[in-house]
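Hey L., structure's done. Input below.
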Amino acid sequence: MATGTPTDPKRYVEAIRAEGLSIYDPIAVGDPVLWIPTPELQALLDTGLRGLSLNGLPLRTRSKVVKTRICEILGYPVPNSFRKTQPRFLGQMFDTYTQKSNNLQVWNEELSASRRYVIIRVSEADVITRVKVVTGDTLALLDTTGTLTRKYQARCIPGSQAIELIAAQDTERLLPFVTPDVDLTKIATPVLHPAAGQILAIDTVFKRLAPLVGQRFADTGADQERNRGAALHRLVCAALGYRSYQDDGQFPDVRHQLLEVKLQTSPTIDLGLVTPESVEPLDVPLVGGQQVRHCDVRYGIFYGEVANGSVTLTHFFLTTGAAFFTRFPQFQGKVLNAKLQIPLPADFFDT
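Output:
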């Protein structure tokens, strides 16, 4: 299979079944054979769970039926009883939440940045209609209630320079696998997994995105922040050279380039549950045999002014996660709450 091409998620299922693993056997994040990356995990569970009826089942039975079906879908043997581990599916690091409403409730524990959350939409007739899988740091960015126990933030104060390249080169781990140029028009989508030799060097990314400063786009829609982000993401994908725009709601935004894009119309940068300088593994397959970490991700921060129904991009910063806090000072706040209630956006299951 060619490096960087879409993979058939069923190959992970076959490998897990061949190894005879249980759902509790640990797997290294990014293992190219056994770790199921989030997009592929979502594809498998969405296809396999859709149409499953839970009608008339008590809550405990419903939970067991869903978990049993997930084991079958992913190639795991069904255990005689499901242990109360955290998370329940320990090997693939995910928990399941069956939802009729858009109010996600997480009881008696903090969100974990590295954990995956399998959120299952159930119709009024108790039939599964959609499955979405996100990491904890993605969920944290949806929390507008201030109930998260830990949520990192930083401050962005634009200076006299309109564009700033904060990290002159990529991290030592990523550096051997980046290239000064690659024709991204030949790459199908920006949400493919990163691959050695297809990742633009950070200075090339800077040169391609810097001309976006001064561009303006309409500030429309009921959910302005999400619409602004989507509009910027489209501009970024085009400026990098992709033929098409795609956003699956996972971190980082442009997965193929390990690039997270943020639009700031105020100084506070929301970072979710993990700091950019973290050495925790990122949920992508190994690149050149190396495990990618959060600190290896590149962060493109655009500052914009909102006026007369439009957003004008005024500043652009590009940095690695490792160098993030050399330019953007961190601040933290903590709020304790036994139950986290996270309102999911109306279009949460649409991407």
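The CA atoms of residues 164 and 317 lie 5 Å apart. Residues 1-6, 334-339 have pLDDT under 50 and may be disordered.

-- N.
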